[in-house]
Amino acid sequence: MSIEWIGPVLASTTSIGVVYLLGSLGEIYAERSGILNLGMEGTMAIGAATSFIFTITWGHTIAFLLAGVFGMLMGLLLAFFAVSLRLNQITVGLAITMLGLGLSGFITFPTIRKTVLQTLNPELPSTALETQSVPMLPPVSLSFLKEIPIIGPMLFNHNIVVYITLILAPLMWFLLFRTSIGLKIRSVGENPGMADALGINVFRIRYLTCILSGAFSALAGAYLILGFQPFWIEGMTGGRGFITLSLIILSTWNPLRAVFGSLLFGGIEVLQYRLQLFGLGATSPQFVLMLPYAIAVITLSLLSLESFRKKMSAPATLAKPYYREE
Amino acid sequence: MFKLERRMHISRKVSSIIVFLSFLLAFFVTGVLFYFLGVNVIQFYSVICSVFITPNLLIQAVFRSIPIILASLGLVVAFRMGFWNIGAEGQMYLGMVAATGIVILHVFYEAIPVSLMLAVMSAASFLAGGAWCLIPASLKAKLGVNEILTTLMLNYIAMLFVDYLVYGPWRDPEGWGFALSVPFPDYATLTLGGHPSIAGIIISVAVATLVYILFKYTKFGFVLNVLGKSSEVAKYAGMSVGRATLLGSLISGGIAGLGGFYVVSGMIGRLRPRASPGYGYTAIIVTMLAQLNPWLILPAGIFFGGLLTAGDALQSLLRLPSSAITVFQSVIFLCIVLAEFLRRYRIVLKRWKQ
Amino acid sequence: MEGHDVSVIPLVELKGIVKRFPNVVANDHVDFSLMPGEVHALLGENAAGKTTLMNILYGFYHPDDGEIYVKGKKVRIKSPADSIKLGIGMVHQNFRLIPVHTVWENVVLGLKETGFILNKKKLAEKVKRVCEEYGWNIDPNAKVWQLSVGEKQQVELLKLLIRNAEVLILDEPTSVLTPQETKNLFKALRIMAKKGRGVIFITHKLEEVFEVSDRVTVMRKGRVIATKLTNEVTVEELANMMIGRSVLFKLVKPAIKKGDVVLEAIGLKVMGDRGVLALDGVNLRIHSGEIVGIAGIAGNGQEELMEVLAGIRKVYSGKVFIDGEDVTNKGARYLIEKGVAYIPSESTRWALIRDMTLVENIALKLYRSRNFSNILTINWRKLFEFSKKLIEEYDIATHSPSKLAGILSGGNLQKVVLARELSATQDGKIPKLILAAYPTKGLDVAATEFVQGLLLKYRALGSAIILLSEDLEEIMMLSDRVAVISKGRIVGEFSPTEKTVEEVGMMMVKGNTALGGRKVCLS
Predict the structure, then answer these.
(1) Which residues of A touch B149 (CB under 8 A)?
(2) How far apart are CA C515 and CA B189, in angstroms?
(3) Domain total of chain B
(4) Which ipTM score applies to this complex?
(5) What are phi and psi of B352, to 5 degrees?
(6) I need a labelling partner for A201 at 20 to 30 A (CA). Which of A43, B66, B189, C372 fits?
(7) In B289-301, which positions are buried (b, 16+ CB within 10 angstroms) versus exposed (e)?
């Protein structure tokens, strides 16, 4: 087998990995503060659907920003139910996923989308009203770096969002582990009672991380359609929100490890396409696709073992609402 | 000033009223939401109503509600014992796999007598669904692994496993390359009384009765009830918590597996990818709406089966996407979750002191 | 105000503090003051109201009445965050630390001075410096889970010291410490006092009062009995103030000839929740028709003893026999079937389910009995009738057994537990062994009398009974034999007529130091 295929494979590994990485950056913060956002899948779908529509009307940049705003609204909904009303995060999250998947399908349904688009911008040509595809974000090729073997094509021939995400990951790591706000977020997830006693507003922190998680999930959805697969299909997120949750478990709630984890999961997905492409006999793409989920179950089990539990377990109050006593 | 007061206990009656009012609230919220999205709300609701008053459509609704009902009945068992099983979807897929496996065994090896086919298939589905649920249950019982994430992840693994089978070894050799299993022969399909929904109703009512009896009369059901309220008290009373968790989840997953059996044997007549449009998730809403009461599961399930049916009608009559129904479902879901808040807290009007 | 210079403004002054909880007044017009530079011991039995009082000062509870002055200024403390701003800090019995974080992260959390970016090196150094002042040797970069219990406590104190808290409240700080760690803690407390801080030291151990404090305030049943300079009181005086005498009605206790040995425990060692031995070689023998009262200050292993005899806690080493049969680690179910009835402490929480009906609560153990079930199903009709009978017999205030347990008052709930445990054995016979942990706690006089009468009735019927009580008088009055437990050992066993309440109180507080840790087993 020739070596030429390695370049494109690595490039698309990064390209798909960024979907997971972008989504995980916000959700890591949420989980670190004790919020499990099972609404990620639906929020991603909302991000993809809104950015699809707004790209047609106002272009990429505004589409990204607005997708983020809609994501924040979804996060706000989660925060209200899970933090203020202290309801079960699992059911709220599933409901939000359902809502997101439903709404994303609804607003992109051809007849409805047409009305929406016409309302937003009456001057759109009819082709724009009907189209299922969007212009992809242009790659910004860092020509001198691109020539480096292997790493070059893997990292330096992508669109701007990929670069921003890859820079954001270490920044988010720094924010979480080296600043006072990061310490507050982590402490709120481990022991909200203690944080509260030291004058930290647990509710405000959790609202913040919920909104952050919503925003990043939606941005991941926006990137999915604008940067990776530039045409709309209902349900195009295809469980990627849940894969992101697996990724976070695998990276033990650490944004830097999430970079490697997302590349691994991206690689798994690309490998699966390749297997289909080459029709590699007995090897079945489905088993490859199962890997992220299986990895999550195994990691969760390992983290429950006595020897791991102390060192790097899940945030102690993950998915548990905080009641101030008395 | 308003003050929230935690309720120490709540009677079943008050609780039911709160849930029912929240259910009605969902109609209002959905109406407002759709109004702003430019939908004719009155037409929307009249299409949904028509499903329940038109005999043909009602039969269709019942037909589509049966897998939901079975999955919900399974969830009743899990939720009552405090096991947050959101893996009914995956357990159903395993049920489908087992039923199809038996058919394939028979078609190619004639291993099972024809007269026993349906019995063997349903038993196999029950065991397969139950076994799938035993994975997260034993991880919880032995290691304390949170069952919420594991059951969720196992759903996707089960779904992909079905994909693997129908794209791979179980693909019908005479199926023109489509990802489908062999069609089930007549003796492996539920054709009792001319329409598969009749067999479905019988199975659903029978299972509901059994679940009702389990919790109302049996010792094991009582243990599960206590376990769901407080595992400490269960230990105090000398109940074996680990064994009850395992056996209870086996039953829970098993009933969902039966739902899978019904999907392939009663509805589709073969195994195909994505054979469930999310019955297992809808079942969570149904179970919460029915307040874990096996009898209420039946009407609640039929309502949601009706919504699925209405989805088709909306498409043809109002040119609305079927995702409108998903939106409606999710709003109902959120409202029922909200009901949990009202059940836990009493809103008290208090005069401001000091 | 007694015993200190009036010209100095107290760090903290509490005046007329009242705090009521459902059924109980935890603080009844309590006055308390803390001077700069003193270690002030707050002494009292369990549930005397010490911790409640300090939780009020700490802002965790809000008083129903009374005033708080900090350095002469009247303040309202709404939350722990407020009290920290006022320079008041508290170390709870259960540490509030994050095990997966480093020491310095735990210490500086929420500090304004750290700035946005945390300078790890500088902060660690700062923590280290404070450590050195008190002679502690903790690595600021270590994860908290790696530390010993004593070191964790030091981290808790560091949290307060780095915030320059002038008032430090320690809630029974020595209960988890080794003798060496205790010594170190006391040394540190003296240094803190020397620097002008005030330390409030909650305890029930008399020797510690003398070891570390300048002044002592004794509380009993929600009230302050006295505040004294430590060097002006004797151990005996303090013990009397602390234990006190409650005026009780006399019970007629008929003489009963005790029967065969029902329970025998030999060399029982049991692990507590914190992973240290809660019972350290307990020997106990109880006959039928006998009440054995276990006297001891709370937290000395008596609850673990009950749990292990009920089969809920595992035996670490040693043996338990019932009727001569080895039942060590046979599990709760087996013991229930052997006829062990168990009324746990806080029974309304651990032995009842509020969201279930009275019948269901009564059926909690009974559902397995052949009288009320077959192999598969429960005979609810029969249980319903049985519950009705019990409700009548125990005079439980309810209309029907199908009402939810949660609507009943605490006293009635306790009756439900008693009814189930005493009358509802598997084979319909009376229980062989009754484990009654604080069965009259929180009950009014009538209900208390009722419960005590019941215990005597079952004693007459031939049950063997182990009784825990916070009320020493109650133990002395009901028991045929009293065993004093201290630090997981039985340090004395005698007939209640042999000793006075005061003498027993001394044994409880002095523990095995007084008796040299000798294990005594009479029978």
Answers:
(1) 245, 249, 296-297, 300
(2) 82
(3) 2
(4) 0.91
(5) -65, 125
(6) A43
(7) bbbbbbebbbebb
